[in-house]
Amino acid sequence: EDQVTQSPEALRLQEGESSSLNCSYTVSGLRGLFWYRQDPGKGPEFLFTLYSAGEEKEKERLKATLTKKESFLHITAPKPEDSATYLCAVLGSSNTGKLIFGQGTTLQVKP
Amino acid sequence: DTEVTQTPKHLVMGMTNKKSLKCEQHMGHRAMYWYKQKAKKPPELMFVYSYEKLSINESVPSRFSPECPNSSLLNLHLHALQPEDSALYLCASSQEGTGNYGYTFGSGTRLTVV
């Protein structure tokens, strides 16, 4: 059964304090791993798609990496506006079209 | 246009009411999805439409009835809901039914059943 586990559940950082969020996954035939950002009461906002181990993508202060078992979302010198819940999801070959989400990591960045 | 638009943004309905949620996209995507999200939980898939045909129904109660009139529009008809159905209802779309290129989500409809 496809499964996604995110850690930590919650993370509090000072502005400028870099850190990483983890997404461990078990999936038969990974077709894509997705990172989303979600603000309270809003829909998830697409950040990155990673397709194969070794792949990396960057956007502003965020960098996503992928291995065969996990993905990391690195946040460099975060700002208060980076505060949100970050969701990881996988698409496997056995669940066509169905994203399997992790529980999310809620990030709070204090000024 | 790279958006998925959902209306209304907020909805309060009684348990005997009938209401509908609407979702629209003009990105040429051929798959559309309904998700339900409870507070502090990840989105849960309800329905998938691929090329305007229902392809996945995640054993959703019949009080939720999806409809896809055309490739740009997705509706969710609600009838005789329960208070536990209160949640954020999210619509999403993808280029095609496999979801390989990721989903674009709308901002959601906050539904409260009283």
Which features characterize this protein?
heterodimer; A: 111 residues; mainly beta; 6-stranded mixed β-sheet; 5-stranded antiparallel β-sheet; 11 strands; 59% strand; B: 114 residues; 7-stranded mixed β-sheet; 4-stranded antiparallel β-sheet; globular
Describe what you observe in this structure.
The complex is a heterodimer of chains A (111) and B (114). With 111 residues, chain A is mainly β. Chain A has strands at 3-7, 10-14, 19-26, 30-38, 45-50, 56-59, 62-66, 70-75, 84-92, 99-101, 105-110. In chain A, strands 2, 4, 5, 9, 10 and 11 form a 6-stranded mixed β-sheet that branches. A 5-stranded antiparallel β-sheet of chain A has the order 1-3-8-7-6, with no helix packed on it. In chain A, a hairpin with a 6-residue loop joins strand 4 (30-38) and strand 5 (45-50). Chain B is an all-beta fold and 114 residues long. The radius of gyration of chain B is 13 Å and the shape is globular. The mean pLDDT of chain B is 93. The chains are: A mainly beta (111), B mainly beta (114). Chain A binds chain B through residues 31-32, 34, 36, 41-46, 49, 87, 89, 91, 96-99, 101-104, and chain B through 4, 6, 31, 33, 41-43, 45, 48, 50, 55-56, 88, 90, 92, 94, 97-108, 110.
